[in-house]
Amino acid sequence: MRGNTRLAALGAAVTAAALALSACGGTEPGGGGKDATAWVLTGGPEATFRSSFETWNKDNSDQKITTEFFANDAYKEKIRTAVGSGSAPTLIFNWAGGSLADYVENGDVVDLTDRTKDLQERLVPSVLESGKVDGKLYAVPNNNAQPVVLFTNKKVLADAGVDTAPATFDELLDAVGKLKRAGVDTPIALAGQSQWPELMWIQYLADRVGGPETFNAVLKGEPDAWSSPEMLKALDMITQLVDAGAFGDKFGSVVADANADAALLHTGKSGMLLQGAWTYANFLIDAPAFADSGDLGFATFPSVEGGKGDPANIVGNPANFWSISAKASKEQQDIAFDYLNTAMYDDAYVDSLIDGGTVPVTVGAEEKIAQSEQAPFLTFAYDMVKNAPNFQLSWDQALPASQAQALLTNLSQLFLGQKTPEQFAKAMNDAS
Amino acid sequence: MSVADRVREPRQRVASPVEKHPRRLGPPLWMSLPAMAFFAFFAIVPLVGVVLLSFTTWDGLGTPGWTGASNWTRVLSDPVTQHAIRLSVILTVASWLVQCPTSLLLGVFMAGRQRYRAVYAVLYFVPLLFSAAAVGIVYKALLDPNFGIGPATGVGWLSKDWLGNPSLSLPTLVFVIAWCFIPFHSLLYQGAARQIPREMYEAATLDGAGRVATFFHITLPQLKNTIITSSTLMIVGSLTYFDLIFVMTNGGPGNATRVLPLDMYLRGFRSYDMGGAAVVGVILVVVGLAISALLNRLGGSSRMDSQMEGL
């Protein structure tokens, strides 16, 4: 008898442990539910996503899509693990580039080429191109074009005697000097703790100095591509800006996710801000009075005298993208395809993007944009995207993850003055 | 004497009957099975997994591939890791130097029975109630050089770039971590100090010892075991500390606060270098275990001498 009790107790203990374990591996989205799932980013055109999914769920109660919203940094970490462990949502929000290529290589996402024809007709071809890997479409854009724009606070600039946004690098340095003398401690707002806003500076400068080839050499893995004369000159220009005090001495704790850099501009503590076009939408929400006052200026990035790059070239993200998880059930995938073909970039979607102050990536949006309340900025940004000879995808998205992280850390040290351009170039050559 | 000899050394116990008839008294062995099973599943299995992973290359997708010791040579010769090791040592030593004396003094102070001390004790206890993430976010907002407490109050020296300046960020973290953990350690010392028999103080006072002398000759020696426990928690805790640093600086600016646990995380979940991250993880486990074992031996906890002889 006694042996039996022991055995029973042991059995109970093992069952308990097994139950506890299975609860951990649990039913994450994508597991087995009937509804399709989507993970979406907060900020930017969040309202567009919300209303689109709400409308879809109301009209298609048998084909529901459940959503979860995440902040940028948290999402980027979560999604990789989720995809790797087979518990990804049906619709995978991504940035195309290096991470999409990884997903494709591992068979984590499905080919969208044939089943999203309806949607593809509505989209700007160059943006659609970014979602392709080896000629097949694996990701379709889901929001707005995100070129990087030089925002200005016209009042702060005018008070310091700077009448127009700087058009060349020398004018930029000059403007920094004038702002400093006028008592502006932080002439250019920079979210140094987030690191990726620093990338925008080197991306633009490298392009203006040496054209797209400068970075393409890095992408192709050419030896010593980081220490090419053009790259070194661009890096040196960053050092010049830092030494001139262009970013003040407190940029290291400014965080972009909290819009602290935008706050510096609209509270008049800074004169300029280099950020993605989505920041315009943040101004509308965080500081509507400033956005309406006419003090908010926007310009293309200054050119560099003698530089090889076309001043109309832009950097940033063509858009964000949806991919469909290969691990999702057939039912879930069908729902996702239906959603993409019928609801994505329908009239309400495009209107909502424009109302929110962002640039849709659909063809023939000019008219709608011209009629919107935000026409001046949106026309500016739409034309910028349309007329750009080259749209460079953000380097941290374009490069493999291991190099991207090294790039961000080393760049941050360059801005802090802990590394010289040569040391930066050497560290990056070693990392690639 | 080797570690094994030391462990086998017979222990001085009062309750010798337990040793004579260990099979009859005490709960049967199988009762520990559920606990052992959980420990195996949640501690041993992952640990073995991490060790195996450190010999593979894996980016989080697909299947890991065996690479032998190449991760180890790569990570150990990486200046980023070496920097992280140095930072971890500095953080650990600095944290101990700040937390240990402060919490000891606070604990002894709170051990007094005066009512005003009870009020203080409640106040000191407050930081213990907050989650690390909440503390991190609030301190980050307070220390913001543009919109934080400095600019708000107009106090110039508070407006420094506490978390964004490479030479200030680590000391700032040491301070915030201390703010979070001193209450807990004070509580340990308060409890321990209250257990010191009053007779000892009375006897010392009769012999003419003042307050300072009783502190150094009675309180401090009596708190010896608590100091060892609390120091072990502090040192192993600082060595593996992650959440506050992650929330407040994310290892930055540059890599000025990229301590080993952050290095492990950034390697694994930002660079998707799971093999390299596993190497750092194994180093942390080994060093952490070694230090706590060493501290235990230094404290002579295996002997457990009575400190109250004559009472």
Question: How would you describe the overall organization of this protein?
Answer:
The complex is a heterodimer of chains A (432) and B (311). Chain A has 432 residues and is of the alpha+beta class. Chain A has two domains: 36-143 and 319-363, 3-Layer(aba) Sandwich (D-Maltodextrin-Binding Protein, domain 2); 146-316 and 393-431, Periplasmic binding protein-like II (D-Maltodextrin-Binding Protein, domain 2). Chain A has helices at residues 2-24, 46-59, 72-84, 97-105, 117-120, 125-130, 154-159, 169-181, 196-210, 213-219, 229-243, 260-266, 279-286, 288-293, 330-343, 347-355, 366-371, 375-387, 395-398, 401-415, 421-431, and strands at 36-41, 65-70, 91-94, 132-133, 136-137, 140-141, 144-153, 188-189, 272-276, 296-299, 314-317, 321-324, 359-360, 391-393. In chain A, strands 7, 8, 9, 10, 11, 13 and 14 form a seven-stranded mixed sheet that branches. Chain A has a three-stranded antiparallel sheet with strand order 3-12-6, covered by helices on one side. In chain A, helix 11 (229-243) packs across helix 21. Chain A is globular. By secondary structure, chain B is mainly α. Chain B has a single domain (72-298), classed as Orthogonal Bundle (MetI-like fold). Chain B is built from 15 helices and two strands. In chain B, a hairpin with a 7-residue loop joins strand 1 (56-57) and strand 2. The relative contact order of chain B is 0.13. The chains are: A alpha+beta (432), B mainly alpha (311). The interface between A and B is large, with 44 and 37 residues.
